[in-house]
From TrEMBL:
Pfam families: Acetyltransf_7 (PF13508). Residues 1-134 form the N-acetyltransferase domain. One of its GO terms (molecular function) is acyltransferase activity, transferring groups other than amino-acyl groups. PROSITE patterns: GNAT. It comes from Vagococcus teuberi. InterPro entries: Acyl_CoA_acyltransferase (IPR016181), GNAT_dom (IPR000182). This is N-acetyltransferase domain-containing protein. Transmembrane segments: none annotated.
Length: 150
């Protein structure tokens, strides 16, 4: 497995980004300011990571995604570990990520990797997304912000 920086988004990258964030308009709002990385497994793009600077001390995981066929193989954990190393190497002391309140597996995943919920943004997905998003049969409304001190 290789994780490397990318400078341009291909259709494969965009498809992966949309797995984690179905609204292409929202992706376009943050992708131009992001540090972008792809994960290659057997020379195939199987994951993507987008990081964005919040402030001098904090870096945010804007998007992290692994293709369906390569999930549960440690690739997501490797991307998170890479984000930790990148943040520390660039002198950030806090790593943050936001996810939906109905994103059960993502919440488990982030907390398993040391993130803690620090805030709730009520109705975020209703206000900022044109189409309703449903997860596990529940309409996604609220966004949770999680943080990890490095």
């Amino acid at each position: 497995m290789i994780i490397k920086r990318i400078n341009a988004i291909t259709p494969i990258h965009l498809a992966l980004l949309k797995e984690a964030d179905p609204d292409e308009h929202m992706i376009n709002s943050y992708i131009s300011r992001a540090f972008l990385f792809e994960c290659l497994y057997n020379n195939k793009i199987v994951g993507i990571l987008a990081l964005g600077k919040i402030n001098q001390d904090s870096l945010e995981i804007l998007n992290i995604s692994v293709s369906d066929t390569h999930q549960n193989k440690g690739i997501g954990s490797s991307l998170l570990d890479f984000a930790d190393v990148f943040a520390k190497k660039n002198h950030y002391v806090i790593l943050e990520v936001c996810t939906g309140s109905t994103s059960i597996w993502q919440l488990y995943f982030y907390q398993k990797h040391g993130f803690r919920i620090i805030s709730v943004q009520p109705d975020y997905f209703i206000i900022h997304y044109k189409k309703p998003i449903y997860e596990h049969g529940i309409q996604l409304k609220d966004r949770l912000r999680l943080q990890k001190k490095l």
